[in-house]
Write a structure and sequence with these properties.
By secondary structure, the chain is α+β, with helices and mostly antiparallel strands. It has helices spanning about 30, 35-50, 95-105, 115-120, 125, 135-140, 155-160, 170-175, 195-210, 210-220, 280-290, 300-305; strands at about 15-20, 55-60, 65-75, 80, 85-90, 230, 260, 260-265, 275-280, 310, 320, 325.
Length: about 350
């Protein structure tokens, strides 16, 4: 695992979501998801990928959700995956933060071209960041700000390992970037980093006057009745199932991520960089609403595809405002997670 989200590369219960886009004129029956086929394909995926289990949810154009599972959520207890199991979402959680920001854009309370310093400048922790005076909100949201990953700094990893249950303030996490040179001038390159979304969340909190998780719950989870989605802000997360990060896991060094119902480290540290858990069903319902633009309006959605080349991903993908654009399809933040 290269970062917390990448636990999913070996996590023994993988979260898979899908949103179907059947043609608008297709017969209603043709839009229905074939459950048996979905189960068969997922079982084949689990076998081919050599992971113990996975959870899949598919939303069709009519809004119907089909959730299927395959394999095990806990290999020791031989517990089979269930549709009601929650899994950590990794960087998919960034879309909740992006959605609130895009709502503020629609409301005229946020300008993507505004310098971040307009909101956070004058604070020592911020002014010492690389490119602090020049980066804009659009650049932060599209990972083109020049902020590198705080979460992979050896000093941060050492601090996390030494105090695995610590409750982190994002300002303290960003201080691990002090003295780190920017790999490029703001807007002149691309480098995927959770640091960007920690900064974005702090701007949103400054505008709204409330914590980002409160804003997400009030503006998104409650109105959309996403009851199976929750912030991963505590070592004890109801219905979050076991995962295995591998013996080389830099985040605490443990392969097994749950012991006696508690995570081996506090996932709260991921915060706005990910920081949510959901069932595949809840995640798929969220994805269908997010990429339809229903949450923040077509005008805000149209701003998202103005992406920058994400060259480390290959020649095609571009990182937009809260999305990755692989050719013509629009999908969620890639990061380093499955």
């Amino acid at each position: 695992m290269q970062r917390w989200g990448r636990v999913a590369q070996r996590i023994q219960a993988g979260l898979v979501i899908a949103v179907l886009s059947a043609g608008a004129t297709a017969p209603a029956e043709a839009q229905r998801v074939d459950r048996a086929r979905a189960e068969s394909r997922l079982a084949a995926y689990v076998a081919t990928a050599r992971i113990p289990g996975a959870s899949l949810a598919i939303v069709d154009r009519a809004g119907r959700v089909v959730a299927v599972t395959a394999g095990f959520s806990d290999t020791t207890a031989r517990r089979r995956m269930q549709p009601a199991d929650r899994l950590l979402m990794g960087s998919v959680g960034k879309t909740y933060v992006a959605a609130v920001a895009l709502q503020l854009l629609r409301e005229g309370r946020l300008d993507l071209e505004a310098p971040v310093a307009r909101f956070l400048g004058g604070e020592g922790w911020y002014d010492s960041l690389p490119n602090a005076a020049t980066m804009t909100l659009r650049q932060v949201m599209s990972h083109s700000s020049g902020l590198v990953r705080y979460e992979l700094q050896p000093t941060f990893l050492a601090a996390l390992t030494a105090s695995p249950m610590k409750i982190w303030d994002p300002r303290d996490q960003l201080r691990f970037l002090h003295g780190q040179p920017a790999p490029f001038a703001a807007g002149a390159g691309w480098d995927y980093s959770d640091s960007n979304y920690l900064v974005l969340a702090l701007v949103v909190e400054r505008i709204l006057g409330e914590p980002i998780d409160v804003a997400i719950r009030r503006r998104l989870l409650r109105p959309l009745r996403l009851r199976e989605t929750m912030p991963s802000d505590s070592p004890r997360l109801p219905k979050v199932v076991q995962g295995y990060a591998g013996p080389g896991n830099p985040f605490g060094g443990s392969d097994v991520m749950l012991r006696e119902g508690q995570m081996v480290l506090n996932p709260q540290f991921e915060g706005a960089g990910g920081g949510y858990a959901a069932t595949a069903r809840g995640a798929a319902r969220w994805g269908a609403r997010y990429f339809s633009g229903a949450i923040f309006g077509d005008s805000a959605l149209s701003a998202a595809p103005q992406g920058v080349a994400a060259r480390p991903r290959g020649p095609g993908p571009r990182d937009g405002v809260g999305v990755v654009l692989p050719g013509r399809a629009v999908c969620g933040p890639g990061g380093d997670h499955a």
